[in-house]
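Example record

The entry below shows one chain as it appears in the dataset: sequence first, then structure tokens.
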Amino acid sequence: MLAAALLWTFKPWQPAEQDGLVAGEIRLASTVGDFALSDLDDDQLAVIFFGYTWCPDVCPMSLAVVRQARQALPEEQRRRVVPLMISVDPERDTLERLSEYLEAFGDDFIGATGSQAELADIGERYGVVWRKVETPESAVEYLVDHSASLYLVDASGEIIERVLHAPTPGPLSAALDRALN
């Protein structure tokens, strides 16, 4: 009985089903000026990733997956997909740092960030969680544990599909194919 209770206590958090949920507008300062989902064209969608530039593994891998999935699209479809990384580490991720970091993935990748309150509101609406983890023995001082899904979102803030973290572009490519065709 105790073992079952402990397993329940430590089971990993899983967000509720989100496909089709209207999570709403995202309006943040970004590497291209003020960014708003509602400014997307009707035929465009954003691929949103919540992460941070000091992330040692998941973030660069996820952004590389976005780059690979977009590169596989025909030019007309690629134009319709707006890659957006929202930083969950506004203390360290300035717009300049985001811009420099995202250059490695493509010159059309957008970085955005905001105040802790703005990010908490967006995170709650989109079902994204993160927490700061102090690492006193490390030169980076802290890491940020965070959700690693990609979100395909339209101009109205509707989550078309949530794509679970994967080390290859296959799942995202399939989701983009469903969303764009």
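Notes for this example: The radius of gyration is 17 Å. The beta strands are 27-30, 33-36, 45-51, 81-87, 110-113, 130-134, 142-146, 150-153, 159-163.
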